[in-house]
Amino acid sequence: MNKLLEGKVALVLGIANKWSLAYAIAEAFHRAGARLALTYLGERQKQAIEELAKDWNVAAVLPCDVTRDEDLAALTESLAGNKVHAVIHSLAFANREDLTKPFVETSRAGFLLAQDVSAYSLVAVARAVAPLMTEGGSLTTLTYLGSTRVVPNYNVMGVAKASLEAAMRYLAYDLGARNIRVNAISAGPVKTASARAIKDFSSILESGPQHAPLRRNTDPAEVADAAVLLASDLARGVTGNVLFVDAGMHVMGHHS
Which of 4, 90, 110, 174 qualifies as a cystine partner to 98, CB 3.0-4.6 A? Predict the structure, then answer.
């Protein structure tokens, strides 16, 4: 890949392990010439990320729990003096029981937790990094079709992703005056740590090759390449968008 992100600094939130979409994106950003700042949750993850990132051009590896305002303030402070050009927000969380019980049984606390980590965090991250994006830039989040269509067992996370996508549009409006673009990539199902929490996820994966127009499942590398595109000057006119990278699955009607 040519160096589309040469000279740019990219902040990537949400690498859990090498199967994470955030990992595939960070790797593609590195190949495209970006310098990376990475965040982790907890000491165990710190070691894992340092190991995964050892061959990349890394400016910083920083702690960040997006539910804590002080962590976000510290993130801004740690990166002060760096101009940030791209941010990848690739994190979400819901209680396992809220993903396994019928949606109607979602608890109030479980609903609010999913919204806090999966949707509000985009707003909080945008507010923390916008002051560092003095040359404009790009903020990209990850979403899924379950935000607008019912995907059985996606439950409280589907509602959180709907909220995330609406937040993305309002942020695109707010930050557009600073030449900061805000978009979402709606990825097809990929076997990641968070996907394993979805009940019956394997049946979603099995149906991909039968129903998607490209007759296959989504490859993390194609999600990563789309993220490079959105962060690059090639996408300078693109904001407030949901870009589907799902082998075409979102155009299909009902299938059993």
Answer: 110
154 catalytically annotated: yes
How many residues comprise the chain?
A: 256
Residue 79 lies in a domain: yes
Element (H, E) at 75: helix 69-79
Task: Kindly name the residue from 23, 120, 154, 170 that is annotated as catalytic.
Answer: 154
Q: Confirm whether 144 is a catalytic residue.
A: yes
What is d(CA 14, CA 64) in angstroms, rounded to the nearest whole number? 10
Residue 16 lies in a domain: yes
Structurally, the chain folds into a number of domains equal to 1
Summarize pLDDT for 140-170 with one digit per residue, the tens: 999 999 999 999 999 999 999 999 999 999 9
Alpha carbon distance 75, 70 (integer Å)? 9
Alpha-carbon distance of 131 to 101, in angstroms, equals 41
**What is the biggest distance separating any 2 CA atoms in the chain, rounded to whole angstroms?**
53
Query: Does the structure show a pLDDT above 70 at 18?
Result: yes
In a domain, 171, yes or no: yes
Please report the sign of the dihedral spanned by the C-alpha atoms of residue 222, residue 228, residue 230, residue 233: negative
Q: Name the average pLDDT for the chain.
A: 95
Q: What is the band of 24 on the pLDDT scale with cuts at 50, 70, 90?
A: very high
C-alpha 137/C-alpha 175 separation (Å) is: 10
Residue 182 lies in a domain: yes
- Domain with 225, as residue range(s), is 9-251
What CATH number is attached to the domain comprising 183?
3.40.50.720
User: Annotated catalytic residue: which of 23, 40, 120, 144?
Assistant: 144
